[in-house]
Amino acid sequence: MAHRVEQEPERVIDLAGRSLPPAHYEVEINPVTELLNLRTYKSGVFEAGGYEWSLCLHPQGDPDLKGNDPVFMSLYLLMEEPNKLGDDERIVVDYKFFAFNYNSWTYVIFTEKGKELRAFSRATTKLGLPKFLSLETFNDPKNGYCMDDHCIFGAEVMVSKSKRKMETLTIVKNPPQNTITCKIPQFSTSSKHPQYSKAFKVGEWEWKLKVFRQRNGAQQGKSLSVYLQAQGLRPRIKMYVEAKLRVLNKNPTKNKEKEVNGWLSDIYWNCGAKEFMPWKDVEKSNGGFVNNKELAFEVEILVISDVLRRDESVLMT
């Protein structure tokens, strides 16, 4: 199929290069003398980012480009089967070309100046460098691009979508109505299972307290574990929270308090302390913590984050 190419871009050459070969495609060509007689070399197809690509090298410059300069080799990245894309669909890529240098034993890197991200579509299926490498530079043995009539070229193609996720994070200190008293009715000191408070709301979120006798660690069974749980967090959203948790005693001077914090998500929605207070203080019949079979708490949300997520088009220069 015919490929459309945009106007001629400028190039950037990283002569220092790197020792690692290109991640997606490499071709060794021999003999170079025969390559230079070809008008066009088309590589085999390779896969990158879920799409298929190929390279197109014009050893004497692109014959289809107006004002072609035959003193430069042209190298392009071609998208195979662009008709699989929707009419308005774009595939955003960051591509690099490579030429092996036998003198330094490194891969010299060629990129498009000011075009770190480029978009392929049904209309734009061919991107690259009409002035990839001058024939004078390529043919001079002192420059190291040829050895024993061999040369090596390659490409890397990093693919992303034309949309990206944008996130706006707002940190709210001391949100309105941030102190809540809640209770666990019918609290049992003999229960081996977690016990929960009723749900309460602070900010846009509902919360619960989860409490149990510490189940592991060196202090197993010797502490009350208390965790603040966010309810109904949206998938892929992380929320930061800082809070003071208090276990209330009928004598307020004996309240137990700890400050907790953490990043919560729909997968991990707890933050708290596994050694919140001694278990022996909880189970004392006259300890003042369990009253009328209720264990009472006060939760003070100190800091909470609010996240707004949206899709945004990727900007390309």
UniProtKB/TrEMBL annotation:
Residues 22-157, 177-301 form the MATH domain. SMART domains: MATH. InterPro entries: MATH/TRAF_dom (IPR002083), TRAF-like (IPR008974). It comes from the Eukaryota. It holds the Pfam family MATH_2. CDD domains: MATH (cd00121). This is MATH domain-containing protein. The lineage of its organism: Eukaryota, Viridiplantae, Streptophyta, Embryophyta, Tracheophyta.
